[in-house]
Amino acid sequence: MITLELLVLLFAAFIVGLSKGGIAAAATLAVPLVAFFMDPLSAAALLLPIFIVSDAVGVWLYRREWDGWNLKVLIPAGLIGVLVGTLVEPFVPVATFTLATGLIGLGYCMRAWLARSATAHTPRPPSLPRGVFWGILTGLTSFVSHSGAPPYQAFVLPQKLPKMVFAGTTTITFAAINLSKLPAYLSLGLMDADDTGLVAMLCIVAIAGTYAGRRLSQWLSERSYVLVIQVLLFVLSVQLSWTGARALLSGMA
């Protein structure tokens, strides 16, 4: 029987795949959608196998399109962020990470859209200290709710990488981060073997979404691609900020 919950899960799986095909930031909408039916960490754990499977497809699709400097810095830093998340998760409210992630994304979008100078359109060279900082933050927020896109994009988007290189770098970075989350989620008792059949079905939908995302990324112009990513990031960041702030305020009441 098709229920509203199943339809939401199928849609969430498709947008996870869409993001792994190149439409970055879309995947972060998946956990908030599924969180309507369960707590955010359980939602993140249910979706993790779908992320990993679609990551594998995405890595193969973008196996020749990536930026080596960013991968060498962001992947190790992201793994550190996952470790930090594993250690602090029992002590820090999820809402704190949710609010911080949303504010980071909003800050980047406002800076990108309101900048008027000519230098706003020139690439910003990456630096190691900033890369390590944003990479750790990416891994940390990704661990909590698969919402690593805002800090990641705040660092990588200003570099003005070619769209397919940006998409490939994003896919490979998050593939490594997501794979590293599996032992942590297992150690915290978040994975449920009873969900195996459902997860298998969602993985098939996610794979279809990955191929659709790749085609859409190729079809969009460079400028349109960046705008789509920024708009998705803005919408996502508003939602994360609202959810985090509301949860923190209700906890104080």
Describe the protein in words.
The chain is an all-alpha fold. It has one domain. About 75% of the residues lie in helices and about 0% in strands. The protein has ten helices and no strands. α3 (about 40-60) crosses α9. The longest helix is centred in the last third of the chain and has 31 residues, at about 220-250. It is globular. The protein starts with a helix and ends with a helix. The relative contact order is 0.22. The model has no long low-confidence stretch (mean pLDDT about 85). This is Probable membrane transporter protein.
Note the beta-strand portion.
Answer: under 5%
Q: Report mean pLDDT, rounded to a whole number.
A: 85
Q: What separation lies between the terminal Cα atoms? A: 40 Å
Total beta strand runs? 0
What's the topology here?
Elements: H1 4-20, H2 30-34, H3 40-61, H4 68-88, H5 94-114, H6 128-145, H7 149-156, H8 163-187, H9 196-219, H10 222-252
Structure described in brief:
This protein has 253 residues and is an all-alpha fold. It has ten helices and no strands.
Highlighted features:
10 helices; mainly alpha; 253 residues
